[in-house]
Amino acid sequence: MTVQLYNTRTRTKTAFSPIDPAHIQMYVCGPTVYAPPHIGNGRPVVVFDLLFRLLQAVYPKVTYVRNITDVDDKINQRALETGRSIQDITTETTEYFHETCVYLGAVSPTVEPRVTGHIPEIIQMIQTLVDKGFAYEKEGHVLYRVHRFADYGQLSRKNQDELLAGARVEVAPYKENAEDFVLWKPSTAPTPGWESPFGYGRPGWHIECSAMSSKHLGETFDIHGGGIDLVFPHHENEIAQSTACHDAPMANVWMHNGHLSVNGQKMSKSVGNVIIIQDLMHTLNGQIVRWGLLSSQYRQPLDWTQELVQNSHAALNRLYTALETLSDELWTPLSIDYQNIDTVVLSALQDDLNTPAAFARLHELVHAINTAVNAQDKFQLQTILLNTARFMGFLTVSANEWFRGALSIDAISESEIQDYLDQRQAAKLAKDFKTADDIRDTLRSKGVIIKDTPTGQEWQRAN
C-alpha cells in the first residue's frame, strides 16, 4: 500500500507522490518559546513524530525540520511582565519543550532551526519581495501586498470579503490595504532588533518560517504540517510569501492536526483548564499521554478527559501484560526492525495515520498472544508486538520497569484497593469479564497484584 495523506489545500486524501522518493522533506511549525508547553502543544509533537517514523519506514531518507520561534511579540511581552531577559525566557522555555518531546517519546527532528540564527535569510527574502513589488516599506515597516498574490486564500478557502472583514477591526495607518500583513517592524530598546535595509527592526512571524524552510528544504518541499489553528493566517501567509519569492509552490501537501479541548471546553486561562505538560510529568507516564493524544485520528477534534487517560493507561497495561514473559534482554535494544513491523498496523498508518485502526490491531495481537497454545507462536507474536509498538513510540521500558515504576507515580491506599476489588467482583458476577480484566490491569499498573483463589480475591503489592 502506498502512503495516503489528506491535503488541507485540496481537501482530499490522495496517494503521496514525493518530489524525490529517495529523499522526503517535511517542515512542521514548532513552538514560540514564551511559556511552558500545554497539552494542546503536545498533539502536533506526537502526530508529526509518528508521521516522521512512518516515512522513515517507507522511504530511504527523510529530512524533518521543526523550527523554534525565539523572536516574537509574545516573548517580548512576557519579558516585560516578568522583568526577565528575553534570552532567559527563550532558553528556559526551549528546554521545557525539549523535555516535553522526550517525555512524549518524540524523536528529534533532523534540523531544528531558530529564528535568531536566520536573520540574514529573512532580510534577503523580504528584499526580494520588495524588489518584485509584493511588499512595500512604510514608516519603518515592510508589509506584504495581499492583493498582488492572486491565489491568496486557497488554503483556508477564505474569500476577499472574509479577509477584509477580519482585517478591518483595527487598520494600522501605515497599511495600503487592511489585509496587508507585516514582514518587518521597527524595534526600540529593550525589544530585540537587527540592522537591515529597512531600518533597525525585527521580523514578523510569518516570514520567519518561509525563510527557514527554504534554507533547509529548498523552494518546494513535500510536506508542511502544523495545528489546524495555523491554517489562517500563518500558513496562508507563508504560501503567499514563499510562492511570490520563488515563483514556485511552497509545499505539495499541507497537513493539520485537529483542535484539542479539555472536558468538552476550549482550553483557556480564563476557564482555568490549561494543562501544562510539565505538571503531568509528576503524575503520568509519558507513554500514557502519547497514547491519549494519538487515540483519535489526527484530523479529528480530541477531548482530553480523565476517562481518556484511564483508557490509555489500561490499553498500555494490556500490551505490557501480554509481554511479561519476555526476558529483560529482549527489551534492551531500542532500535526498530522495519522488516518486522506488523503489516496491518503499517497499512493503517499509511492510510493518513489511522491510529484508531493501528491501536485496534495492537489489541488483536495481544489477544492472539494471550490465546496462543504453541510457545514458539506466542514468542513470535510477542516480538512483532514489541517491535511494532516501539515503532509507534510505545513500550520503551520493560514490562517489569513499567509495573514497578507505577508505584512511584500512582500511590494507592488499601481502601482504594478494596473499592477496585468490589467493582471487579461485581463485574465478574455480571459476567462483564472485560471490565474485570481492565480493573485487574489498572491495579497492576498501580503496583497491586491480584490473584483469584477459591475463597475470593487476594492482593499484594508488587514490591
UniProtKB/TrEMBL annotation:
Positions bound to ATP: K269
One Gene Ontology molecular-function label: cysteine-tRNA ligase activity
Gene Ontology annotations of biological process type: cysteinyl-tRNA aminoacylation
Protein's UniProt keywords contain 4Fe-4S: no
Leader sequence residues: none
Required co-factors: Zn(2+)
Motif 'KMSKS' region per UniProt: ranges: 266-270
Catalyzed reactions per annotation: tRNA(Cys) + L-cysteine + ATP = L-cysteinyl-tRNA(Cys) + AMP + diphosphate
UniProt key word Nucleotidyltransferase: no
Location(s), subcellular: Cytoplasm
Motif ('HIGH' region): 31-41
Details of cofactor binding: Binds 1 zinc ion per subunit.
Domain Cysteinyl-tRNA synthetase class Ia DALR: 344-403
Family: Belongs to the class-I aminoacyl-tRNA synthetase family.
Subunit-level organization: Monomer.
Protein's name according to its UniProt entry: Cysteine--tRNA ligase
Organismal lineage: Bacteria, Pseudomonadati, Pseudomonadota, Alphaproteobacteria, Holosporales
